[in-house]
Amino acid sequence: MNITTILFWFLSVVALFSALMVITNKNPVYSVLWLIVTFFAISGHYILLNAQFLAIVNVIVYAGAIMVLFLFVIMLMNLNKETEPQKNRWLRMAGAIAGGCLLLVLVAALKDTDMKQQLAMTNGGNIGLIKNLGKELFTTYVVPFEISSILFLSAMVGAVVIGKKE
Amino acid sequence: MQNALQIVYLIPLLPLIGFLINGLGRKHLSKSVIGVIGSGVVLASFAISIWVFLQVKGGNTHEVHYFDFISVGDLKIPFAFKIDQLSSLFLLIITGVGFLIHVYSTSYMHEEKTEHFGRYFAYLNLFIFSMLLLVMGANFVIMFIGWEGVGLCSYLLIGYWFKKTEYNKAANKAFIMNRIGDLAFLIAIFWLIQKLGTVTYSEVFIAANLAKLNATDISVITLLLFVGATGKSAQIPLYTWLPDAMAGPTPVSALIHAATMVTAGIYMIARSNLLYSLAPFTMDIIAYVGLATALFAATIALKQNDIKKVLAYSTVSQLGFMFLALGCGAYTAAVFHVMTHAFFKALMFLGSGSVIHAMGGEQDIRNMGGLSKNLKITFITFLIGCIAIAGIPPFSGFFSKDAILLSAFAKNPVLYGIALFTALLTAFYMFRLLFITFTGKFRGTHEQQHHLHESPAPMTIPLVILAVLSIIGGFVGIPEVFMHGGDKLGEFLSPVITNHSEGHVSHSTEYMLMGLSTVLVLGMIAFAWFKFKNYQRTEEKGFGKVLENKWYVDELYDKVIVNPLHKLGGFFNSIFESKVVDGIVNGVGRAVSYTSSKFRLLQSGQVANYILLMVGSMVLIFVLQFFLKR
Amino acid sequence: MPINYYIFLSIALFAIGIVGVLTRRNAIIIFMCIELMLNAVNLLLVAFSKMHHMKALATDAATTVGTDGQLFVFFIMVVAAAEVTVGLAIIVMMYRNIHSVDVNFLNRLKH
Lengths: 166, 630, 111
What we know:
The complex is a heterotrimer.
Chain A: H1 3-24, H2 28-48, H3 52-77, H4 89-110, H5 130-139, H6 142-163
Chain B: H1 10-24, H2 31-57, E1 62-72, E2 75-83, H3 85-108, H4 114-136, H5 140-158, H6 165-196, H7 201-204, H8 207-212, H9 215-232, H10 241-244, H11 250-259, H12 263-271, H13 273-277, H14 280-302, H15 307-327, H16 331-358, H17 376-390, H18 396-411, H19 413-438, H20 446-451, H21 457-472, H22 488-493, H23 507-532, H24 542-548, H25 553-599, H26 607-628
Antiparallel strand pairs in B: 1-2
Chain C: H1 3-23, H2 27-57, H3 67-98
Helix pairs in contact in C: 1-2, 2-3
């Protein structure tokens, strides 16, 4: 069992555990913090897959910007354990069962696929490096890239319009 | 244009155009315009028909294919016309006699309001159109379209005076009775499609395809077609509509009886003669039914007092003769009789119309008498018609009836005996009608007597033309014994009709039979003369009363079929409809509204519930996709 | 690592996200669960990209196969960031109007 395998299992366990904590924790602030842990674990996976650029972006954008935004909002509303709305038990059970069924079905459906022998390259391959991705991004994908800036602009305008007091 | 066959489509198209113009413009056109259009289109069709006939006579037959009417899988039913000897002959009869009836109608119907006048001519044109479609179609489906078309038109025309309930009932009766036969015809068509995959004559009537059918198929198909023919051509047991069809205007009766409609059954069987020749059993049935109808209708005609009813039963009887000929395999004789019958029956109907016109709508011959003085042309032409139908040489009826009697004799002398007896009855009741109507003293009211007058020229000219045709019409089919090669009609029709006679009659026998029938008919006429020259009204008693009431067949049908159906209908209406059907319908409605009131709860408006359902559905889809597929 | 492991890990994360959406009533948590689901998909995309890259490397040492997969992830992040701004703005507005982030109050869909 080499270090890569150990790291993979460790990161997987961390990701799954923290994801579970996200949905089970009663306090929204804790949920946000656990989600950040999940994102870090996923970033770890990216590094394991030698996708360094995405790992960094994931940490900066998701764990950094987006989750902080969430945190701000939650604190702004002063949400805590006491104000957390609770579903009735049967509905929660139904939801858990439905999600479990989906998991079961997907796993059962995919476990016999012929991709069993395929490997995902870890610790190697340089396509995940900033240099290569950047080259591709500013040549082949330059138009979508520019358009995404317009998307940001419109999202910003939208957020301002929705958020301002009338 | 070199070839008349290129414009055959105009023959049915012109009456259709006339129908559209008259039907749509009946409120705006004047009577004379309507009359000219109505008659003119038929005349034009007649002209083209003559042209076509001459072409066909020159050996130029053709099948004109326009487009595929139905195309389903391997089954292709083309919209095509078949122009050959048989159809061209029928074209002549339909358009020729039809034209004369149109001309006659312009005068006869002149007292109708313009609007109804236009409606009348529109129907007449549609009638001609349907009948032309029937005879011109190159397959059974096109024939069926025309077949239904004439059924519809007969309904419309019999119920032309739709304000009288009994006339509407007569129209309904005609329509429904026909429908029974039509159903059999339709089943026969389906059967043919099922067995052969085609209904086109030229494909059905070839040896290779006929060989594909086994004896049962042929028997069933021919029998079903025959049932269809009994409906349209008024044979036992579906004949009762025809006498009731007298409710329509007299020219309509002439059209139905002479040129169109009732000859459809004869045409169909003559057209399918190759098929029928393979079905001896059906042939026997046709012969017996035809003969029974002929005799039965003739006995009824003996005691009828309505001038048109006598003629109607006479038509039924004559149609019986034609079916007898068909059943004996003498298809040519049947077609021959169709032709001559068209002449003299149209003549007599139009003549009776002239009488009714003169009598101011009176139809009961007991109130007539001595009309020969006032209605000279009508009387003479009517007399010619009577002589023709009675079968006295050299009038047309003699030749055709003789051919039928001869074929019956060849099949079975007993058939001949009954047929001859029926022919004698025919002579008797026709001359009874003639003598009661035109001789003796006038028995109507003074007002009617004062009113008596000969009909105007548009009515008498067709009478004269038809009278001439009734005299000379028989010469196209002179029997071989008189003149070698005299049977022009048989020669003409030989490419399409293969006669299927079962025996041969020697010349001496043939002479003897002709002489016998002629002498007996003359005797019958003399007997009628003595009995009816000074007719006095008497009440019928005993058997005569049974005959006067048409053997009570209508009452029998009422008792056995109509009333039980009414009862059943009443039962279904009151019990079945209200309880069971309504119960089911309302129950379905209630079940739907109940379940939907339950299902409505699913629409909680809660996004979470929707998502839950969505996930559940996704699971379901995945399950179906991945597990059930294996 | 065998690609199967990544597939099952992603499915598990995704399912956890769905269960979160189904069981929680807090709009912000639901939103977070959606982010979690997006990340599960991202992880799988990267794994697949590396899988294809590995296969292509066997024949061509200078291949760039698999880059598009990672760029896709990049664009998903872009869209997610935009989505979060708008989504959070909506939640803030909702809180301002009904003083709660409980989605059960959002039952106007019925009407």
